[in-house]
Amino acid sequence: MAFTREELRKRAFERTALALFSFWQEQKDNVPRLAAVHSRIFETLIYNEYIELNKKTADRSYTEHVVPCAYIRDLAFKMFWDGKKPDDVADMIGRLLRIAYITYGDRDKVDAVHKHTMPDDWNPENDSILRRLEDAGVEVVI
């Protein structure tokens, strides 16, 4: 069976949501509640080409997850604790998991403002996924 690029992309998000759900099931009754799975799970299950906002260049060679992977992982666990299903989490991953190739100087700007976090007033359901970069004055060159 041949898959379109969009089907492969969707399957990658679904596969990741199911893996996270499996980890959540094993940990859901632990106190305190934690998301004890490495945030690099996304890098092993989803190819960069499915989530690129722009292309790598000689100047823009740093790979920046526009929403930190740890944030997405923690949000997935919260969604499961709130009764959401893996399909809901797959949709969330599909919206939030993106990478932008930026300069190393731009990376330093982002790290100075929001290294591994999103702004406190940021809403993952409808706010710009580029908010961390925007707050740091970093433009994603497409």
Provide a concise account of the structure shown.
The protein is mainly alpha-helical and 142 residues long. Helix content is 48%, strand content 6%. The chain has a two-stranded antiparallel sheet with strand order 1-2.
Q: What level of helicity do the residues show? A: 40-55%
**Which class best fits the helix and strand makeup?**
mainly alpha
Our estimate of the beta-strand percent is 5-15%
Q: Sheet with the most strands? A: 2 strands, antiparallel
Tally of DSSP helical segments: 6
Strand order of the largest sheet: 1-2
In sequence order, what are the helices and strands, one letter per element? HHEHHEHH
Outline type: globular
Give the N-to-C terminal Cα separation: 33 Å
Q: Low-confidence segments, ≥5 residues, pLDDT <50?
A: none
| Alpha carbon gyration radius | 16 Å
